[in-house]
Amino acid sequence: MRLQNAELGPGDARARSGPLFERLRSLERRTAEYAYVRNTLVELNMWIVRHAARRFPARREMSDDVLQAGTIGLIKAIDRFDPTRGFGFEAYAVPTVVGEIKRFFRDTTWAVHVPRRLKECRGVLREAVVAFEQSEGRSPRVSELVERTGLSEEEVVEGLQAADGHEAVSLDAPLGSGEDGTDIADRLGAEDPALGRTDDLVTLAPLLAALPERERRILTMRFLHDMTQSQIGAELGISQMHVSRLLSRTLAGLRSRLGGAV
């Protein structure tokens, strides 16, 4: 039975589905016969899912997931379809199947987490951009997208930025078309280790200003001009040992006051 259904074309599937829908309406849900008839309808109308899935180009490894999402939409359509309303099942099922596939892409294929609101804005903007480019022959400005979509300027800007989150690029990807071997990772900045000293320097500044002039001068010559203790002693007319004791005492005092300030 399943093999025969799989080999049926859309015309034969439509013809066989009509009586089965009538039969399904007469059956009680959650019975074995109801499940059998519904499963048969799913098999007969899988061509709708396959047809809808072709509208959404996907990587090969995702194709089964796309079909599964479309099948969920097909089952929902079968459960809700009322043949007495006077329209065909195909016209009723296609929007539901396509909607489930769109929801699959929206919820599961983004490389970066993006709020659902922005994902929906992205879909609206994508259609508006395509329509504008086809009619005007150029890319639209933000103000023109605002006018066409009814979205606010902030929503348009955020929606366009959200499009970049759909796919991620490897940090090892080459940068541009050059052959110099440069990749994206080579252009990423790193944390400046000197930034960690900023708070210390801001805290230390008033402590240094409070030191006696000679001690400030010794620190300047030692750490700013990189002079040796002997050179500092010769400059100030004191011994190298005296310079060493002054440096040790001054640094110890700064460490103590700096610890208290933190």
UniProtKB/TrEMBL annotation:
Domain RNA polymerase sigma-70: from-to ranges: 65-78
One Pfam family recorded for the sequence: Sigma70_r2
CDD domains, alphabetized: Sigma70_r4 (cd06171)
Database matches in Gene3D superfamilies: 1.20.120.1810, Winged helix-like DNA-binding domain superfamily/Winged helix DNA-binding domain
Keywords: DNA-binding, Sigma factor, Transcription, Transcription regulation
Highest taxon, organism lineage: Bacteria
InterPro entries found in the cross-reference section: RNA_pol_sigma-70_dom, RNA_pol_sigma-B/F/G, RNA_pol_sigma70, RNA_pol_sigma70_r2, RNA_pol_sigma70_r3, RNA_pol_sigma70_r4, RNA_pol_sigma_r2, RNA_pol_sigma_r3/r4-like
NCBIfam families on file: SigBFG (TIGR02980), sigma70-ECF (TIGR02937)
Cited PANTHER family: RNA POLYMERASE SIGMA-E FACTOR, SIGMA FACTOR F FLAGELLAR
Entry protein name: SigB/SigF/SigG family RNA polymerase sigma factor
Lineage summary: Bacteria, Bacillati, Actinomycetota, Actinomycetes, Kitasatosporales
